[in-house]
């Protein structure tokens, strides 16, 4: 399992980091773990699946 930071996810999805945090808070993108500072870390596979589904539904 490869973990991605909020910044990496934001870059991959083409959105701002605050959008990624909101997606996690709203349980639309589930954090797999937390870093030492308490920031969410995301499984790369989950992020890729989220992007695919979001694109099918009309965008992120």
In short:
It is built from three helices and three strands. It has 60 residues and is α+β, with helices and mostly antiparallel strands. It has one domain (3-57): Multidrug-efflux Transporter Regulator, Chain: A, Domain 2.
What does this structure look like?
- The protein is α+β, with helices and mostly antiparallel strands.
- The protein has a single domain, classed as Multidrug-efflux Transporter Regulator, Chain: A, Domain 2.
- It is 50% helix and 13% strand.
- The protein has a three-stranded antiparallel beta sheet.
- Strand 2 (33-34) and strand 3 (40-43) form a beta hairpin.
- Helix 1 packs across helix 2.
- It is globular.
- The protein starts with a strand and ends with a helix.
- The model has no long low-confidence stretch (mean pLDDT 95).
SSE layout and pairings?
Blueprint (H helix, E strand, L loop, with lengths): L2 E2 L1 H8 L3 H9 L7 E2 L5 E4 H13 L4
Antiparallel strand pairs: 1-3, 2-3
Helix pairs in contact: 1-2
Number of strands: 3
Approximately how much helix is present in the residues? 40-55%
Derived from helix and strand composition plus strand pairing, the structural class reads alpha+beta
Q: Uncertain spans, ≥5 residues at pLDDT below 50?
A: none
Global mean pLDDT? 95
Strand content bin: 5-15%
Distance between the termini: 24 Å
CATH topology: Multidrug-efflux Transporter Regulator, Chain: A, Domain 2
């Amino acid at each position: 399992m490869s973990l991605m930071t909020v910044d990496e996810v934001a870059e991959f999805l083409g959105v701002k980091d605050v959008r990624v945090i909101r997606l996690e808070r709203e349980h639309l993108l589930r954090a797999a773990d937390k870093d030492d500072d308490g920031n969410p870390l995301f499984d790369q596979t989950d992020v890729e699946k989220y992007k695919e589904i979001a694109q099918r539904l009309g965008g992120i």
